[in-house]
Amino acid sequence: MSKTIEGIPAFITIDEYLSLFTACGVDPDQVVELRMAQDGVHALVFALDEHGNRRVEWNSGGYYKHRIFIPVRRDEEDARTSRVTDVAPLPTLRDPSNARIF
User: Fold this and answer.
1) Beta-carbon count within 10 A of 74 CB
2) Could you tell me if 26 and 68 are in contact, meaning their C-beta atoms sit under 8 angstroms apart?
3) Which is it for the CA torsion 5, 38, 30, 18, positive or negative?
4) Alpha-carbon gap, residue 98 to 47, rounded angstroms
5) Using one digit for the tens of pLDDT, what is the confidence trace for 55-87?
6) Would you state the pLDDT for residue 14?
7) Cα 6 from chain centroid?
8) Residue 102: its pLDDT value, please?
9) Using alpha carbons only, how large is the chain's radius of gyration in Å?
10) From CA 93, how far away is CA 38, in angstroms rounded?
11) What is the per-residue pLDDT for 3?
12) Is residue 65 a contact partner of residue 47, using CB atoms and an 8 Å limit?
């Protein structure tokens, strides 16, 4: 039996789970990782092209991604806003030009 901590539920429903994504404005089908932290929400999502398809880096076969940060404002003076950073696919050996990296 696993350890229990008072106040931690044994599970959450699918509706509760999906509401986390809705609150952050992200499509759960495109999320790689969603992390809640003291300063805000950090999400890693697949980058989409103009047709709504995941952007693929053809040489490596990897997907382009975006790292999104959504700050939690604790007071009126906090002027932070969401930011999005592009994340390029990692090089792989599928592309022989990357062989010297490994």
Assistant:
1) 9
2) yes
3) positive
4) 23
5) 988 877 789 999 999 999 999 999 999 999 999
6) 96
7) 29
8) 46
9) 18
10) 38
11) 78
12) yes
- Please check whether residue 65 is in contact with residue 57, taking contact to mean a CB–CB distance below 8 angstroms: no
37 Cα distance to chain centroid? 13
Domain edges within the chain: 29-101
State if pTM tops 0.70: yes
Give me 2's structure tokens: 């696993």
Q: Which tokens is 80 given?
A: 């932070």
Q: Among 68, 54, 62, 49, which residue's Cα sits nearest to residue 88?
A: 62
Taking a C-beta distance cutoff of 8 angstroms, is the pair 62, 92 a contact?
yes
Q: Nearest to residue 94, comparing CAs of 65, 64, 61?
A: 61
CA–CA distance, 12 with 46 (Å, rounded to integer): 25
pLDDT in tens, 4-48: 899 999 899 999 999 999 999 999 999 999 999 999 999 999 999
**Pairwise CA distance, residues 101 & 23, whole Å:** 40
